[in-house]
Amino acid sequence: MPNIVFYTLDLSPPCRAIELTVKALGLELERKTVDLLGGDHLKPEFLKLNPQHTVPVVDDEGTILIESHAIMIYLVRKYGKDDTLYPTNLIEQARVNAMLHFETGVLFARMRFITEYIFFKHHAEIPEDRIEYVQAAYRLLEDSLTKDFVAGPKMTIADFSCISTVSSLMGFIPMEKSTHPKIYAWVGRMKQSLPHYEELNGNGATALAKAIRSAQDANRKK
Ligand SMILES: N[C@@H](CCC(=O)N[C@@H](CS)C(=O)NCC(=O)O)C(=O)O
């Protein structure tokens, strides 16, 4: 078993996407918690690992890797027994890549504005237009879900990436079930397919929503 050190925080969706990938690959990790709210990521020792001061970071026996999507691809390529989670077929891979970029550029970007706004800029209320941006992202995902999983008929790392952020967002920006049946069905399918779903992703998503609500309450009193 390789010695993989994982710099992580359970509140962080991209870290949970790594957890889902690692479990699917049957790997083990040595976890080191990076307390983002306490500023651990801005300390010189962490900046040496990742000048962009983000989690997740992986140290695979001396090779330092940053950025969840890059890390997931690396882990599947290096340790996967087959290519199901990240297909080598060009067309299938392009479909997975499209949804990985959708997660980064749309889902996560729209969530990150809100988490920064509440946690680091200390606002109490989420601006209405930012809520609408998230709801528009829900619509894009709903309309993209034409198969059982986000990039086609099989579960891939694109599902791990997207569910880590969508499940987090759903905890604080409600998603109407009647108008998003495909997303609810997909989330249900993911939970059913992944016996460790709650432990690896669901609990962290719930904790993030709770932390946002607590920060909003604290910011209201300021
Ligand atoms: N696209 C990156 C996003 C990483 C990211 O922004 N992580 C957040 C936590 S969810 C972070 O570390 N923020 C601290 C900062 O940006 O200073 C990935 O998928 O790894």
TrEMBL record:
Which class of enzymes does this protein belong to?
transferase
Q: Name one GO biological process term.
A: glutathione metabolic process
**Which superkingdom heads the taxonomic lineage of this protein's source?**
Eukaryota
Oligomeric form and interacting partners: Homodimer.
What reaction gets catalysed by this protein? RX + glutathione = an S-substituted glutathione + a halide anion + H(+)
Family in the record: Belongs to the GST superfamily. Theta family.
Q: Where is the GST N-terminal domain?
A: 2-83
**Can you name the source organism?**
Anopheles sinensis
- Tell me which InterPro entries the record gives: Glutathione-S-Trfase_C-like, Glutathione-S-Trfase_C_sf, Glutathione_S-Trfase, Glutathione_S-Trfase_N, GST_C, Thioredoxin-like_sf
Any Pfam family from its record, for instance, is GST_C
Q: What is its EC number?
A: 2.5.1.18
Annotated protein name in UniProt: glutathione transferase
Q: What GO annotations for molecular function exist for this entry?
A: glutathione transferase activity
